[in-house]
Design brief:
With 279 residues, the protein is of the alpha+beta class. It contains 9 helices and 4 strands, in the order ααββββααααααα.
């Protein structure tokens, strides 16, 4: 049904089961029990851009019927795709809803494995020193994984609600199936959490590389500063030009000072090597 058709037929259910009495106002997956009816929404992130666009529609499951509320025709497209999918059992609305929800997750583990492969390639680029645009890439990964994490967590909660509803109605098979579905969504949620931790480790690795480069620069600047400190002292000392300074009148004074400065530099470099400053 369209939202308008559902509102005409079930005005009370629309007001009680959906935020603001509008399916389009919902941006998350949920299931609420209303007496003998379960109503809720699906908000499915697109795999091409999980953090941006979502496919949103509602559902209402009664004892003898399962109604999808969709103005965009997305549900019809999914149901058409399910024609060749092996169904569990469509003898009841609950089992049809289970098959529908199961179909939504059919290839998601493979999808998450592709995320892991992309993160692995990003790690290899980082180790090879190709960190251009890394911050932008890792931020995009984290936003998409956060959207997927919320999606799977919400589906797991939906499975628990439907499991409880089936148990109270005495449908042991439905209760078992929705319990298994909740566990499956929970495993996908855990997999996403691991990927988020992986992305955090890559970010920390990148920050460590930046810190190492900064430390190398600071060490080099420290070496240069240390080398020129005694030379600056010599230059300041002999730049006073007092009349009675003996080196001013000596024909070899300039050469002697240059030799002393070079000796100081050589001694400092030897000390730095002994201390391991150039490693």
């Amino acid at each position: 049904m369209t939202e308008e058709e559902f509102q005409e037929k079930f005005p009370i259910l629309l007001c009680r089961g959906f935020i603001g009495g509008k399916v389009s106002h919902n941006r998350f997956c949920k299931a609420d029990r209303l007496n003998k009816t379960v109503a809720g929404t699906f908000s499915i992130p697109l795999k091409e851009s999980p953090s941006k666009e979502k496919t949103t529609f509602g559902f209402c499951m009664r004892k003898e019927e399962l109604i999808f509320i969709d103005d965009a025709g997305k549900v019809r497209q999914i149901l058409d795709e399910m024609q060749g999918y092996p169904l569990t059992d469509s003898s009841s609305p609950a089992l049809l809803l289970f098959d529908f929800m199961e179909y939504l997750l059919k290839d998601d583990m493979i999808f998450l494995q592709e995320y892991e492969e992309r993160l692995t390639r990003l790690e290899e680029e980082l180790l090879n020193g190709k960190a251009e645009g890394f911050d932008r890439k890792i931020l995009s990964f984290r936003k998409e994984l956060s959207a997927l994490s919320a999606y799977y967590e919400q589906l797991s909660d939906m499975g628990e609600t439907l499991q409880q509803n089936a148990a109270e109605q005495g449908d042991e098979k439905d209760s078992l199936l929705f319990g298994l579905y909740s566990d499956k969504a929970g495993r996908l949620y855990s997999a996403v959490q691991m990927l988020k931790e992986y992305s955090m480790q890559l970010r920390e690795m990148h920050q460590t590389q930046i810190d190492v480069r900064q430390n190398e620069i600071m060490k080099m600047l420290t070496v240069v500063t240390t080398v020129f400190m005694p030379l600056t002292l010599v230059a300041g000392w002999y730049g006073m030009n007092f009349v009675n300074m003996p080196e001013l009148a000596s024909p070899y004074g300039y050469i002697v000072i240059c030799a002393i400065c070079l000796l100081v530099i050589v001694v400092e470099i030897l000390i730095f090597k002994i201390k391991g400053w150039f490693k």
